Structures are given as C-alpha cells and as structure tokens.
Amino acid sequence: MQVPYYYHALINKTTMNKIVIIPLIGLLFVFSTYSAFAHSYGAISPASIPAIYLNTKQRPMTIAQPPNTLSQKAKIHLGKQLFEDTNLSKSGEMACSTCHQASMGFSDGRDFSLDNQGTPLPYNTPSIQYVAFNYYFGWTARFPHLQEHLDALMTNPKLMDRNWPELSQKIKQNDIYVQLFNNAGYDEISRTTISDAIIQYEYSLAKPSRYDLYILGDKQQFSEKENLGYSLFKEFGCSSCHQGKNLGGNLRQKFGVMKSYFNEHNKIEERDLGYYTTTLKDEDRFYFRVPSLRNVTNTAPYFHDGSAKTLAMAIEIMFVYQLGIKPSDTDINLIESFLHTLEPVE
C-alpha cells in the first residue's frame, strides 16, 4: 500500500488553539516519532477512573482517583440526579440527559437535538462521555472551561432557560435535594455546588477501553484486523489531530485542510463558519474542535451538522478533505475496525 503523504502536526505556540499541517514526503521517521509521542500518554488507566473535577484550579483538570470516598460517591450520585432532572429546566420538560442519553453514548442519535420549543438546534449534540479529558468544549471550542459551557446551556432561553439564583432557590425547597447536597459535603446550594456536582458526574462517565488496555501493554486486546487498522490510523496521519488521551478534544482544526469542504456542498450556514462565529476573524473560518474518537462507533451521526450518517462515510470524508487522500474500501474498513476498540468496557 502506498501512502502519498505523511503529516506532522505542530502546535501553534502563539494561539495554542490550531495546528498547522505540513506535508512531509518520505520522512517516515519523523512521523513515527510524532505518532509515538501522541499516543505514549494516551491510555486511561483503570486507576484514574473516575477522574475528579477540580473547580479550584484555573481550568478543569483530572488527577488519579484517590481512595473512593463516600463524599465523592455522593457528589457523583447527586450530579446524576441533577443531570437527569427535568425540573432543572424552566419548562420542566428538558434535562441534560434529554440530549445526552446514556444508551446512545451520551449523545442523542439526531442530526440536531430539539430546543424547548421543538425546533432543531444549530449543532449536532456531541457525546460527553469522555468530556473529562477534553481541553476545549463545544463544537467550535469556544469554551475553555466546563463551567462556562454549563452556564451557557443553563441560561440559554432555548434550552434550560434558567438563571442560577432562581434555580438554586428552587432546589433549596426540595428536601430530598437538601439531604443529597449535605451528604455530598456541600455547605450551600448555589451555582458553584450545583455545577460542581453535575461536572463530577460527567467526569465519572469515562471508562477504559480495549485500546487503553492495549496501550498499557495487553497486546492481546486487538485482533489482527484491529491492529492493521491502528497501524493505518497512525501511518495516514489521523493521529496528528486525533491525539492524546482522548484521541482528540484538545485543539481546533480547519474542516477542509487539503481541500475545501463547504464550497463543494450545500449553502454555507452560520454553523459551518466554526470558531469564526466567536472571534469574527477570517483566519478562524471553518475551524472546529477536533472531536474525541472515544466511543465514536456509538454516536452517529457525525460532524457538527450530522451530515455523515455512518462512520465509514465520516472516515472517507476525513481522508479526502483533511488528508488529501482517496482511501480504498479496505482502508476505511480496517480503520473502522480499530475505532471499535475505543468503546468503553466495564
């Protein structure tokens, strides 16, 4: 099999939010070194699950889980109750779990989720199962912190339509919640503690996969076909963007690096402009957060607009527009086989 180009990803040290893709023809040793680096810290160890959200730090971080204390379990339990409670929304009909359903990899299987009036939202709902290991949040990566992301969802008049003082007061009137907050070690019910509990729950959703066990040394986890797919994933340059512990989620990249994607398709919508909608800078047009590939086999449809209905279709589009390569059916099939190793295991 001949691979016409190899790509080396360099972090833009000025903005730290984009990468520059540089074709490197024939420099296999350079790419191999990068791929090894990108994946050397890529395993989620069972010892670090669940991760803990540290809301006292400048940005959410994850650390190895200490002895699983009763208060930590209580926070996760409380967060789950809040996450699934439709009373958190003003309408009483929408919860976080309305769009992030556990049975669908914490997405919802729709091209676009519906707002509180039944109208399609502008973006496809991404999975949050591995949000603990993302560096940016939202499709355009406009949120550097999960707290900011939660604020936007909670106060959005088309979604939860709440303000924090109003919601805090409502929860204080519920004796069951008062006890749950006490059990979790919170001394108040406020924006800070409600958010912390929800995010603690979201952080607890991450589970190791066969990929993690493989990276940690158990090479029997992969079949021969999955091994071939993983090799192609690295050789073609997929790991240049889908890198690190989450195989994505830590940088922005242009959708259409090697070939313009949007000009060949339907009329460009505002959602297609990517991070430009936040900065209004031309250099940010069509830049999106590179999504994590963890549990990707369970979260169709794909992309910000749900336009790729199958994983095979998404893989082919990535080949053509991000790598400038026309893949064979075998290439697509093998890489798709590898991606199944990223499904969570108990």
Provide structural commentary.
The chain has 346 residues and is mainly alpha-helical. It folds into 2 domains: 6-40 and 209-342, Cytochrome c-like domain (Cytochrome Bc1 Complex, Chain D, domain 2, Orthogonal Bundle), CATH 1.10.760.10; 48-204, Cytochrome c-like domain (Cytochrome Bc1 Complex, Chain D, domain 2). The protein is 34% helix and 5% strand. The protein contains 12 helices and 4 strands. The chain has helices at 28-40, 70-83, 96-99, 146-155, 164-172, 175-183, 191-204, 210-215, 224-235, 276-279, 311-323, 329-339; strands at 6-11, 19-24, 252-254, 287-289. A two-stranded antiparallel sheet has the order 1-2. A two-stranded antiparallel ribbon has the order 3-4. Helix 2 (70-83) packs across helix 7 (191-204), helix 9 (224-235) crosses helix 12 (329-339) and helix 11 (311-323) crosses helix 12 (329-339). The longest helix has 14 residues, at 70-83. The radius of gyration is 21 Å and the shape is globular. The two termini are 36 Å apart. Mean pLDDT is 83; it is low at 1-41 and 55-67.
User: What's the CATH H-level superfamily name of the largest domain?
Assistant: Cytochrome c-like domain
**Total beta strand runs:** 4
Structural class: mainly alpha
As laid out across the biggest beta sheet, the strand order is: 1-2
What integer is the average pLDDT?
Answer: 83
For the record, the count of structural domains works out to 2
What's the CATH topology name of the largest domain? Cytochrome Bc1 Complex, Chain D, domain 2
Q: Would you list the SSEs in sequence order as H and E?
A: EEHHHHHHHHHEHEHH
CATH class category name of the largest domain? Mainly Alpha
Task: Report the total helices.
Answer: 12
Helix content: 25-40%
**N-to-C CA distance:** 36 Å
Largest sheet, described in full? 2 strands, antiparallel
Q: What is the approximate shape? A: globular
- Rg computed from alpha carbons, rounded to a whole number of angstroms: 21 Å
The parts where pLDDT drops under 50 for at least 5 residues are 1-41, 55-67
Note the beta-strand portion.
5-15%
Question: Which architecture name of the largest domain does CATH use?
Answer: Orthogonal Bundle
